[in-house]
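User: Can you recover a sequence for this backbone? Please restate the input before giving your answer.

Assistant: Of course. Working from this structure:
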């Protein structure tokens, strides 16, 4: 019996040892332009096969599956394989990591394989199957910059053009998108790529515009525009012809890069710069318009301060009006009606203030000035609005009229001699009153027991207030949500209009950063925001969510979206601002 058990055990071990699962490669050293074949083979019918991630490679073929089974001298053999064709993405030493498969309830893994990738090599070609043109000569990507020496905040355009010959482009993948550091950027939507005839290096070819972007440099000096890299799958014509004389096509791959561009940005001149200059560059008009100037006591007026024209409309602050103390002015409602074509931003931005009157009289709103740098004349220009006189027709006179008139220019309230004592009543109207004892009356008992009833109410309210005050986390959350909704109030009003909603959402995010971090709009590059928030101990995930939301605002204006996605973006913005407020306040 023992011998029989030992024999069965040895047979079982032999069966287990027979299971094989391994990875085989066509070569371990290859050029950057060569393809690698990988076969994952097993001698059992495995399930749940999981390939590796192929990090550093791009799968250009597969997976394909082959199964073979044979009988020789009464013994069966089985083999199953999964095959892939890979194209390396970079030079150096790459690792094919483990693949897994389940055979007979047991999980098996392959061994990692190191692959060395060298520079591109010359491949032997069949003269009949060889392409008529080289992929290196057939396709080129060029970045055309409108101006290489602009001023700070002067718009420049970058147009990425693809020049190609008689080839077929099957697919394209963007590998490296420029980040445009130290620039305010706006992508111009290209609804449909159009191919036209063009010339490259004196040769006629096809040309297509792939990408357009408007840039506003935010600082002076030499700034670099990062390169754009795109990977293309191509089909090149060969020397072989079909029955109708058409050339056969061969597949190829080509990566093209629009090289980095260096822009030498000039600073704005200091000579003649006005004291109130806030960074406006372009050609603008400036208007201050009241909704009305004659009104009654307690009525309100809307004062609209607007800047319109062409220039960096989103990158400077509008002047704030100065009103007399007797007028109550509320925080403005900011609106932007700005479009960004290839020539740069144009439109109008405005702040509308609600002003409420309190006393009768005349109240001047001082003239306001707006300064900008005119690119046409390369000089600073200042526009000054006229003084606005607000006339309150009725209501009580302003207190301390002499001081008010001296400080604010408000006219004194004059009272005629005949009306000085008009408020004194000259006649009396006495009414006889019957005596009634207070002691024992209803009022007496009400006043007697009222404190006893009030004491429990006061105790309950006090405990509730202490509980609320003690809830530090809850108070912080409520305060954060209140602050977020304050900044996002304008965006919420525009939820019915996609473009206006995302413009308002982007502006509210910038205003929040300006208020919390005390930075100007010109400093709001992504790297600068990330650096400052990190210094303020904000969490990296929250920072990434904030930056991702600001980036998506630009694309969402043109991408199709539903009311549901707009509401989700609004709620996401409330959550991110609330989280930042809590983290920056802790």
């Amino acid at each position: 019996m023992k011998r029989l058990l030992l024999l069965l055990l040895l047979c079982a071990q032999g069966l287990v040892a027979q299971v094989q699962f391994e990875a085989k490669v066509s070569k371990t050293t290859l050029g950057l332009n060569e393809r690698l074949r990988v076969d994952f083979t097993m001698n059992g019918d495995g399930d749940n096969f999981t390939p590796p991630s192929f990090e550093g490679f791009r799968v250009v073929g597969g997976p394909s599956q082959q199964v073979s089974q044979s009988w020789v001298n009464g013994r069966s053999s089985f083999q199953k394989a999964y095959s892939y064709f890979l194209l390396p993405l970079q030079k150096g030493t790459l690792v094919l990591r483990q693949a897994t498969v389940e055979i007979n309830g047991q999980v098996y893994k392959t061994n990692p394989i190191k692959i060395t990738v060298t520079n591109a090599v010359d491949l032997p070609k069949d003269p009949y199957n060889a392409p008529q043109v080289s992929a290196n000569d057939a396709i080129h990507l060029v970045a055309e910059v409108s101006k290489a020496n602009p001023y700070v905040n002067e718009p420049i355009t970058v147009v990425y053009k693809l020049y190609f010959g008689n080839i077929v482009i099957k697919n394209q993948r963007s590998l490296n998108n420029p980040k445009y550091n130290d620039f305010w950027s706006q992508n111009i939507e290209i609804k449909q790529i159009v191919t036209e005839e063009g010339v490259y290096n004196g040769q006629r070819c096809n040309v297509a515009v792939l990408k357009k972007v408007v840039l506003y440099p935010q600082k002076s000096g030499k700034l670099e525009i990062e390169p754009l890299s795109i990977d293309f799958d191509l089909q090149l014509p060969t020397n072989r012809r079909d029955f109708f004389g058409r050339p056969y096509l061969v597949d190829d791959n080509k990566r093209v890069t629009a090289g980095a561009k260096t822009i030498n940005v000039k600073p704005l001149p200091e000579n003649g710069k006005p004291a109130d200059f806030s960074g406006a560059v372009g050609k603008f008009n400036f208007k201050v318009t009241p909704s009305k100037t004659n009104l009654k006591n307690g009525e309100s007026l809307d004062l609209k301060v607007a800047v319109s024209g062409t220039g960096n409309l989103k990158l400077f602050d509008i002047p704030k009006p100065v009103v007399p103390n007797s007028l109550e002015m509320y925080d403005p409602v900011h609106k932007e009606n700005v479009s960004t074509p290839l020539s740069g931003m144009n439109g109008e931005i405005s702040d509308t203030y609600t002003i409420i009157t309190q006393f009768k009289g005349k109240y001047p709103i001082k003239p306001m000035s707006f300064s900008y740098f005119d690119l046409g004349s390369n000089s600073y220009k200042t526009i000054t609005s006229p003084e606005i006189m607000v006339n309150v027709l009725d209501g009580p006179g302003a207190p301390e009229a002499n001081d008010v008139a001296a400080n604010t220019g408000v006219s004194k309230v004059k009272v005629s001699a005949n009306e000085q004592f008009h408020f004194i009543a000259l006649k009396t109207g006495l009414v006889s009153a019957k005596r009634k004892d207070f002691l024992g009356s209803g009022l007496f008992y009400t006043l007697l027991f009222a404190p006893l009833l009030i004491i429990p109410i006061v105790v309950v309210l006090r405990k509730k207030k202490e509980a609320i005050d003690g809830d530090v986390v809850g108070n912080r959350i409520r305060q954060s949500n209140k602050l977020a909704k304050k900044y996002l109030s304008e965006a919420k009003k525009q939820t019915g209009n996609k473009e206006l909603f995302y413009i308002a959402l982007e502006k509210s995010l910038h205003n929040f950063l300006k208020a919390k971090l005390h930075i100007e709009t010109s400093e709001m590059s992504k790297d600068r925001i990330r650096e400052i928030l990190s210094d303020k101990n904000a969490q990296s995930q929250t920072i990434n969510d904030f930056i991702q939301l600001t980036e998506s605002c630009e694309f969402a204006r043109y991408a199709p979206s539903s009311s549901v996605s707009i509401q989700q973006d609004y709620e996401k913005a409330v959550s991110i601002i609330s989280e930042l407020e809590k983290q920056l306040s802790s």
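That completes the design. Residues 472-585 form a domain with the Four Helix Bundle (Hemerythrin (Met), subunit A) fold (CATH 1.20.120).
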